[in-house]
Specification:
The protein is about 65% helix and about 5% strand. It has about 170 residues and is mainly alpha-helical. Strands 1-2 form a two-stranded parallel sheet. The longest helix is centred in the middle third of the chain and has 43 residues, at about 85-125. It is rod-shaped.
């Protein structure tokens, strides 16, 4: 082998090793990187079918509780400034507020359970993703890591179970 062919062979081997090293390094970096998905939980709660159903359920429960307060006020309409009437109205309002908080907490737990299950199902089919982070807990993210639409598509198949509605006053 003459000197010229030796130099060409050495140069091509160097270029080949550099290219292989570069691609191996890129592959290593891509492998080393842990993909994280981002979920806009507020959007899922407000726009998904179970989230909208929960909001409607809470509005209906609040209406029933407000009607109960109105019934107590109507009961004491002639004597609303008496201590007995003030006490009864205050108790009805406090009960309605307490019940509203209880219903809100139960509905939040149910929606959270549904979202968690949908994320687990999504993660089982996307093994390269190591975590799903709520969007409001990040400092920023690429749109390509947002899985909100995919989770909403998964959630539409879930049927939430709500607690029993409050009973109107006088119902047995």
């Amino acid at each position: 082998m003459d000197r010229k062919s030796w130099i060409v062979t050495l140069a091509s081997a160097t270029a080949l090793l550099s290219a292989v090293g570069y691609f191996a390094f890129r592959k290593y970096r891509a492998w080393k990187r842990t993909p994280i998905a981002v979920l806009d939980v507020d959007a899922v709660v407000t726009r998904s079918l179970p989230g909208r159903a929960a909001a409607q359920y809470l509005r209906t429960a609040k209406n029933i509780l407000q009607r109960n307060i109105d019934e107590v006020r109507k009961l004491y309409s002639e004597r609303e400034n008496t201590p007995e009437a003030i006490k009864a109205i205050n108790q009805a309002e406090a009960f309605a507020q307490q019940q509203t908080l209880i219903y809100q907490r139960k509905l939040d737990e149910e929606i959270e359970k549904i979202i968690t299950q949908a994320v687990r199902v999504w993660l089982s089919s996307h093994r390269n993703v190591t975590a799903v982070v709520p969007a409001d807990k990040t400092l920023g993210y690429n749109a390509s890591s947002d899985i909100t639409k995919e989770i909403m598509a998964e959630i539409r198949w879930y049927k939430p179970s709500f607690p029993p509605m409050p009973r109107p006053r006088g119902a047995s």
